[in-house]
Amino acid sequence: MGAGVGGLHLGLYLRQHDVDEGNLVYDRHMKGYKPSPTFVPRFTAGTADEYLHVLSRNKDIIYTFDNLNMGFVHTQIIGVPVRSIEPLILRPLIQAARTQKRVEISYVSLANPVAETRIIAPHTLVCTPLRWHVRAYCEKNHAFRDFVLSRFREVNGMLDESPMTVAQDEQWQHEVNLILCPDPRLNLLQQNVIARDYDMENGRLVLTERATLIPYMLQVFNIDPLKLEGKPEAQQIVIQNRNEIEDYLF
Fold first, then answer.
1. Cα–Cα dist 246/242, whole Å
2. How would you classify the pairing of strands 237-239 and 175-182?
3. What 8-state DSSP symbol labels residue 21?
4. Could you list the mean pLDDT of each consecutive 10-residue stretch along the chain, which spans 250 residues?
5. Alpha-carbon dihedral of residues 240, 243, 248, 250, nearest 10 degrees?
6. CB-CB contact of 136 with 122 (8 Å)
7. What is the pLDDT of residue 200?
8. Do residues 229 and 235 lie in contact, with contact meaning Cβ atoms separated by under 8 Å?
9. In sequence order, what DSSP letters do the residues of 103-165 get, joined into one string?
10. What span, in angstroms and rounded, lies between the C-alpha atoms of 240 and 124?
11. Dist CA 89 CA 134 (whole Å)
């Protein structure tokens, strides 16, 4: 049986199963099935967040669903411009990370805008809201660092296996709690609005993350740990446990 036919039969089976269980009911006006008053999702959690994530994942998906009249509301997605990353650079970095190999690369940074040769041992690709970077051991600095993928200029060659793997990356292995709360300069009603926005419990949002990723988590919330906005309406949320995460900030 072909994959398409098998998928069709599975879909018909699942629909009939939901009808038999009262999960779906037939609507003569729309000439199709719709959720019953006692509908219970079987393959998703049934949250609004899932629906919104589908909308935000890919404009092409939204365009396809819209043409199929799947009932998606008109949506406008504000995307971050794609940074220039060469496939010829990305492939060996991925291979080195998979095989725990050292790799010789040419790299630029704001501190060193002229390309310089380094030897690194990458272990993980990381996607932040603004960029992709690779977590790697740097033999020049004798430490694990984050290397922005768009700042690689050349990959000169694969070397031998590195003893510095993800297991030796202490900040990567160490998890810490980032605790956020409404800006205390807001009045109580305003603080309640912010707490509801972020689904806080007892006025706190506790996020557990790898220590090395804490600065990127703060970027997600548009929090600058070095300054406080003059207006609390602009700041909205603050770090409650700054002393506990101080060592992991840029």
1. 6
2. antiparallel
3. T
4. 41 50 72 72 66 58 51 66 86 94 96 95 92 96 96 93 96 96 97 97 96 94 92 96 90
5. 80
6. yes
7. 97
8. yes
9. EEEEE--SS--S-EEEEEEEEEEEE-SS-EEEEEEETTTTEEEEEEGGGEEEEEEEEEE-S--
10. 29
11. 12
Q: What is the separation of C-alpha 190 from the centre of its chain, rounded to a whole number of angstroms?
A: 28
Q: pLDDT tens-digit profile of 1-30?
A: 444 444 444 344 345 555 556 677 777 776
Let me know how many helices (H) and strands (E) the chain has, helices first. 9, 10
* Cβ pair 91, 125 in contact under 8 A: no
Tokens of 176: 């810490």
Question: Tokens 């409650």 correspond to what residue?
Answer: 240
Task: Indicate the average pLDDT of the chain.
Answer: 83
CB 155 within 8 A of CB 120: no
Q: How far is CA 75 from CA 60, 68, 146, 187, in A?
A: 12, 15, 34, 34
* Burial label, 155 (beta-carbon count in 10 A; 0-12, 13-18, 19+): buried
Burial class, 152, CB count within 10 angstroms (exposed 0-12 / middle 13-18 / buried 19+): buried
